[in-house]
Amino acid sequence: MEEGGLGLKRIKQWNEAAIGTRLWEIVARDDSLWTNWIRTKYLKQQSIWAVSSSTSASWAWAHILASHCWIKQRSNVLVFSGDFTNLWHDPWIDGQALKEKLPPHMAFHWGPTKSTLVSKLINNGEWSTSIRWPPTYLEVWEDISRVRVGGTHADIPIWMGSKSGTLNAKAAWNFLRTPKPQVPWKGWAWDPGQIPRHSYTTWLALLHKLLTLQKLQN
Fold first, then answer.
1. Which residue, of 28, 98, 156, 176, has the greatest Cβ tally within 10 A?
2. Could you report the per-residue pLDDT of 12-35, keeping only the tens digit for each?
3. Mean pLDDT of the chain
4. CA dihedral defined by 127, 131, 137, 140, rounded to 10 degrees?
């Protein structure tokens, strides 16, 4: 209503937003029966960002995975211990995954496996200096060294599209849609004290949509 409409949502966008929140529950490691079941059945120690859909996937799971493309655009990870962040696939380097910062032919060709955690690079709360990086990785290492780490706190996934840092249905919906400018008359056109029919008529008048005689003749 702040944008001059009736507050109705496009069902396709709202459905995509709702499905996206399910993916975020997995990313945020919610301790629920559903997320624990997903981790056991589908992830099997993999990062959710490394899982792709298959022809045998259920409708719901396939659509949850389809949310990857837009949710990861605004995702980041605050690394503390590194025990919950996948080294290769999670977006922990300024919102990018390590594999995205390397040419395809270089990814995974270095020692750590696809399931290696960021904690393997951390020693006593700091980046380990004992790791022998291949010369081709040195530029990437500079980016990694700028990421702040430390402490025993669990790593925190961040959704950069909301002030709270979490992805809820409203934040997802606002990301997926194209917002319009807010109107100055929303407060009094839709005043709770008004008769709903009067509010609706006022709304039509403000939008110049009343069926006046002149408009009917045209």
1. 98
2. 999 999 999 999 999 999 999 999
3. 86
4. 0
Distance CA 13, CA 174 (A): 9
Q: Are 118 and 148 in contact (CB under 8 A)?
A: no
**CA–CA dist 66, 53 (Å, integer):** 8
Q: Which residues, 6+ apart, have CB-to-CB distance to 138 below 8 Å?
A: none
CB atoms closer than 10 angstroms to residue 136: 12
Query: CA 64 to CA 105: how far, in whole Å?
Result: 29
Contact 126, 92 (CB under 8 A): no
Under a CB-based contact definition with an 8 Å cutoff, are residues 144 and 121 in contact?
A: yes
Dihedral sign for Cα atoms in the order 153, 159, 163, 168 = negative
pLDDT band at 187 (very low <50, low <70, confident <90, very high): confident
Tens of pLDDT along 121-176?
Answer: 898 888 887 777 777 777 888 888 899 998 888 999 999 988 899 999 999 999 99
Which pTM does this prediction carry? 0.81
Q: Which CA distances in Å does 150 have to 79, 85, 142, 179?
A: 8, 13, 17, 39
Q: Give the CA distances from residue 182 to residues 1, 60, 126, 142, 187, in Å, rounded to whole numbers and listed in that order.
A: 8, 35, 47, 43, 11
In 31-188, beta strands by DSSP E = 75-78, 122-123, 126-127, 156-159
